[in-house]
Amino acid sequence: MSILSTRKAEKIDSLAEGGTSLAMDALRRTFRSPVAILGLVIVGLFVILAIISPFIAPKDPYRPYPELKAELTPSNIPGPMPGFLLGSDQNGYDFFSRLLVGAQQTLFVGVFATLIGVAVGMIIGGLAGAFGGWVDSVLMRLTDIMLSIPSLLLAISIAALLPGSQWTVIIAVAMIGVPVFARLLRGAMIAQRSSDHVLAATALGVKRKTIVFRHMLPNSIGPVIVQATLTLATAIIDAAALSFLGLGDSDWRRAEWGLMLGNAQELLSVKPSLAFFPAIAIIIVALGFTLLGESMRESLDPKNRR
Amino acid sequence: MLRFTVRRLLQAVPTLFVLSILVFAWLRMLPGGPATALLGDKATPERVAAMNAVLGLDDPIVVQYFRFLGRTLTGDFGNSLITGDPVMEEVSWAFPATLELSVAAMFLAVLFGIPMGYIAARFRGRFLDNATVITTLVGVAVPVFFLGFLLKYIFTQEMSLLPPSGRHDVLIDATRVTGIATLDGLLTGEFDATWDAMLHLILPSVALASIPFAVIVRITRASVLDVQGEDFVRTADSKGLTTQIVRKRHVLRNALLPVSTTIGLQTGLLMSGAVLTEKVFAWGGLGTLLEQAIQQRDYPRLQGLILLFAVVFVLVNLLVDISYAIIDPRVRVR
Prior knowledge:
The complex is a heterodimer.
Chain A: H1 3-16, H2 22-30, H3 34-56, H4 66-70, H5 95-131, H6 133-148, H7 151-161, H8 166-193, H9 196-203, H10 208-244, H11 257-263, H12 273-300
Helix pairs in contact in A: 2-12, 3-5, 3-12, 5-6, 5-8, 5-10, 5-12, 6-8, 7-8, 8-10, 9-10, 10-11, 10-12, 11-12
Chain B: H1 2-29, H2 33-39, H3 45-55, H4 61-73, H5 87-122, H6 127-141, H7 144-158, H8 181-188, H9 191-228, H10 231-238, H11 243-280, H12 286-296, H13 299-327, H14 330-333
Helix pairs in contact in B: 1-13, 2-3, 5-6, 5-9, 5-11, 6-9, 7-9, 7-11, 8-9, 9-11, 10-11, 11-12, 11-13, 12-13
Protein name (chain B): ABC transporter permease
Domain ABC transmembrane type-1 (chain B): 95-324
Keywords (chain B): Cell membrane, Membrane, Transmembrane, Transmembrane helix, Transport
């Protein structure tokens, strides 16, 4: 085929694509941008690491090693030595293995905090958006109040109620997201309610339940997915902040980056890498989720649609 | 304008009302109930019973709530378990420190954020723009307290340029007037104290400024890009106004509207960040009080602080809404 006819074929193809959904369109646009690909690569590597890390960790991250313990004093934490790539942590455990396995626990906290936030938020926002009226008013007042407490303080006040465990951190961090997701879904659904296709479905006599689940929800889900991606980043950071304030997981042995960073704060002058490596890991992962979320948001914006 | 202000004020009342119910419920949900929470874990059963009587926990719940509300409205949050001092007194003593830190951070964020966002928008898609966008994305991803550590590590431990923590050098004998350290020195003529306080302020305020800075840059950039494409900008251009006038009078002025709202909304983030920053730099403000309260499970103080933070946040948002209505008359009608 000549260049000209290839061009023509492409043009026709692109015309045919005019009928694709906004979601497909956005997805394609997302992965045209290098920023999105970078985000996706970071997130992908992180997830793979989280899955395989228990198998590739050179040492057991959950037991002290005598060779490390031998040299461990309050003012000296052993650095790299044969067999221990990054040396010891403050308890004589292998720091490198803990750093690797930390990916798993960190992903666990981030994903569950986000999922719970999304689930509760979507129930609230979905009810408000589907019913409107007084249900809407009451639920939205509730989210306004949750939004009126600075996010970290909301997490702190919930964490203070519960015993210090990993699930406490997850629930406390999840609550930060609840009002955001509720408002987001409600806004999107209200926009849907007055749209032409919902009006058409109503006129055809489709049941309200079907309209909500078949027409309104699927069309409102885009912004929620974007926000969830961005929330994953902040959830990991907020969990670290709770640990830093002493409201984190009381199981100090658990290898989770936020917890490791929080517990290393007193040891900056002894072995700064104990804080720096978990922090850098958190920053890279948070950046990955942010890049991915931001580029998805940008491409979902109809203004950028060509 | 007055009608808008009054209406907006009235809207804040139910929010604060429900908030008070939630805090009341929260205090009752604390492990061991309010009496144990107030007395501490080691309280004997007799003392708990006595405290229950004092608190009137045998009364109907509605009566209890209104008693709580009455106390809260008169500024009585009880006594701190750590120091035994009234929470209100502690809070008003520590408040100026947090105010100073937050204002300094916000000042830095606005001072650098708006120009950077504007420049990024003018050079859209070019290197400068991409660099700015990446910087702000990284800025959001770095935990505030880690940035604090990093700054402290570089500028005090490695370079010994700036003081590591606190608000004053131990050798400086500063007189307290307002509690805002940099201002006090100016008021009393102790300029060395002001200079010292400013040196202490640099690192914490830079750390705290990182997140509002990133957000302000991005909002300014997006907003300038939006306004640049508006019809009135094209009209201004085509009627022969100089580029400078168009940018200053038409683009920038309109672009700053959403930025002003964002600055208000950042207050909540700033408060969360202040708690963390104050811990890193042993600042001695509300964040330090809060951190101690968490460590010691000092519930009266915790409750007072959470209420205070929430009220400040609601009030700041109120002020932002009102100022927004002054800037943009269209808001008033809605």
